[in-house]
Write a structure and sequence with these properties.
Helices cover about 55% and strands about 15% of the residues. It is of the alpha/beta class. Strand 6, helix 9 and strand 7 form a beta-alpha-beta unit. The longest helix has about 35 residues. The radius of gyration is 31 Å and the shape is elongated. The N terminus and C terminus are likely disordered.
């Protein structure tokens, strides 16, 4: 009994403290189980999976592909003897001037259109489509920006349609869209009669405001809600198209588009290295200008040596 008496006070004192500690612990556990875990704020998911009233519209030149599709196509046609060296030099200079100046001169644009149309006049549409497949493999496939390609794929993975929108000939644009697994393409339409190019355009080149009108028309036909759509471009000339949609992106933007995008709080993505972007001192779309200018210079130098 003595031993028991010695233990009893200690046991009672410990039990009182244990009960207090246990009750406090149980109460804390009960409250913790009833409280929802803290939620970290995140941006809304975009593109929205399963939103079939949304789509994405991508400019081509210097947005999806480095350089101008029409210039690369011209290189392929020159290789196939569609036109002579003097025509290539003229075409290259027009491309270089446009890219370096960053603006369109109406006379230059008209001259470039006339040159391109004169090259294909009399050729069959099917012939140009077939050649376009070859030229894509030769000059375009390795010039696709991986970053922009990933953006397009995200829309496709979300179940949305993705369209190229470009001033390049629609036949070439469709080849590129098909090779990239995109839905389709909006491009400049050259007139043809019985499958042969006439050397005229249907309307005007799909450029600037015309792109916006094409997107608007396609959205209406497809039942799209433009406020839920996205558009991507490198050029300030495409501000009308970018302004149509609820999710505009400036990709590898030229100086004017970069300023506008920052003012409007649009998202920007730049997949060029700093060295490439600065090569001609911005406009950032001048990559093809460097190529075209170099081609023109090389031809001119070659002539002088003769």
């Amino acid at each position: 009994m003595a031993a028991l008496g010695w233990l009893t006070p200690r046991r009672r004192s410990a039990t009182a403290r244990s009960v207090l500690a246990g009750e406090a612990s149980a109460e804390a556990a009960r409250k913790s189980s009833q409280e929802a875990p803290p939620v970290t704020p995140t941006e809304p998911e975009f593109p929205v999976i399963g939103d079939d009233r949304a789509a994405a519209f991508f400019d081509l030149d210097n947005t999806v592909m480095q350089g101008a599709a029409l210039f690369h196509f011209g290189r392929g046609l020159y290789k196939r003897k569609f036109f002579e060296t003097r025509d290539l030099a003229k075409f290259a200079w027009q491309q270089a001037w446009f890219r370096l100046a960053g603006v369109e001169d109406p006379e230059h644009m008209q001259d470039a259109r006339d040159s391109a149309l004169s090259i294909v006049k009399g050729h069959r549409v099917a012939e140009l489509e077939s050649i376009g497949e070859e030229i894509y493999d030769e000059y375009m496939a390795d010039r696709i920006w991986p970053g922009t390609r990933a953006l397009a794929q995200a829309h496709l993975d979300a179940g949305q349609k993705v369209w190229l929108v470009t001033a390049a000939p629609v036949e070439i644009a469709q080849v590129i869209a098909r090779r990239l697994g995109l839905t389709g393409a909006l491009g400049t339409v050259a007139e043809s009669l019985d499958g042969v190019y006439t050397g005229k355009l249907v309307g005007e080149p799909l450029h600037g405001p015309a792109k916006a009108e094409a997107v608007r028309a396609l959205a209406a036909a497809e039942g799209l809600d433009l406020s839920r759509c996205a558009a991507y471009s490198d050029s300030h000339n495409d501000i009308p198209m970018l302004s149509l949609v609820g999710h505009p992106y400036a990709i590898n933007p030229d100086a004017k588009l970069r300023r506008h995008a920052r003012e409007k709080d649009w998202r920007l993505r730049d997949y060029r290295t700093g060295r490439k972007a600065a090569k001609v001192g911005i406009p950032a779309a001048a990559g093809v200008g460097a190529v075209a200018g170099g081609t023109a210079a090389a031809i001119a130098l070659s002539r002088r040596r003769r």
